[in-house]
Amino acid sequence: MLTLAAFAVLALLLLSGCGSSDSEGDSGESSEGSDTSAAAGTCSYPADSQSGAKEVDAPEEKPQAKGSVDATVATSAGDLAVTLDADRAPCTVNSFLSLAAQKYFDDTECHRLTTEGIFVLQCGDPTGTGSGGPGYSFADELDGSETYPAGTLAMANSGPDTNGSQFFVVYDDSSLPPDYTVFGQLDEKSTKTVADLAAKGTDSGAGDGAPKEKVTIAEVTTAD
């Protein structure tokens, strides 16, 4: 059984890769320049120092969606039904929908699965390396009350205000600090789909690595 100290070290190791260490992280060492003004109805998506993994336009500064937005993440493991919360995280949902509309997520692999300490499947990097992003970053949308129960859809990052395109699905209750913007929820069936995939483990048998069963996102669509 892990001691508290050992668990803390494990959690740190797992969390350190939740965002990219390159294109999404390089511009995120400071929140300066990546501030967002969701309360004022606008968002900021400053360009990264590195080019995007796929060529896409940055989202419009004014969020287009409000309230709950139903979306489907079609994957090789099955369709994942998600409800995006545009009121809670308007700039995050705005970016996610923009990338989906530009087919950024199409034919991309979910490159990372963790089965120890935290329980997440990470997706959204067309390079499949954990270092790819869309060529821009944006600020966190946090209030400090964030928790990560099973079914949570949240942004991966490599530090404060380094959000890009990578996101993770929580398939079992996970203890994480409130550092990752929660922007949606999977339904119970979809959460079980990810949990069943996770039960097959990683390709190396370790608690953190690529899924043993390759998972590819075919497309992300909305109900509208």
From TrEMBL:
Signal peptide start and end residues: 1-21
Source superkingdom: Bacteria
E.C. number(s) listed in UniProt: 5.2.1.8
Sorted UniProt keywords: Isomerase, Rotamase, Signal
Biased composition (Low complexity): 30-42
SUPFAM superfamilies associated with the record: Cyclophilin-like
Bias (Basic and acidic residues): 54-64
PPIase cyclophilin-type domain boundaries: 75-222
Keyword Coiled coil attributed: no
Annotated region described as Disordered, given as residue ranges: 19-70, 200-224
Top enzyme category: isomerase
InterPro entries: Cyclophilin-like_dom_sf, Cyclophilin-type_PPIase_dom, Cyclophilin_A-like
Reactions the enzyme catalyzes: [protein]-peptidylproline (omega=180) = [protein]-peptidylproline (omega=0)
Known function: PPIases accelerate the folding of proteins. It catalyzes the cis-trans isomerization of proline imidic peptide bonds in oligopeptides.
Family: Belongs to the cyclophilin-type PPIase family.
Official protein name in the record: Peptidyl-prolyl cis-trans isomerase
Native species: Brevibacterium permense
